[in-house]
What we know:
alpha+beta
Amino acid sequence: MAATIVKTLPLSEPITWGSLEVTELNFSKPKARHFRQMAVAQDAATGDNFIRFGTLMDVAAAMCGVVPAVIDELSAADMFAVIAIVQGFMPAGQKIG
Length: 97
């Protein structure tokens, strides 16, 4: 069964991965498996829990069906847009860092 695309992000700066030009990322509806490896860290000073950017980037790669190295090549602006999309599927109030 093909994944249901729920969000398409046109990249402000397309990237080249091998011989493939990536101009957009298609996000599938997330399932629990996308979050399986998500690690929560704790701020030593405040005790607050947060999720590292790298972890959210790995979740984004899984949701888009690309290898994490594709996400690593995104511009900063596109990376922040990706993080915002992933965070939109998470409960309100979860801090990222």
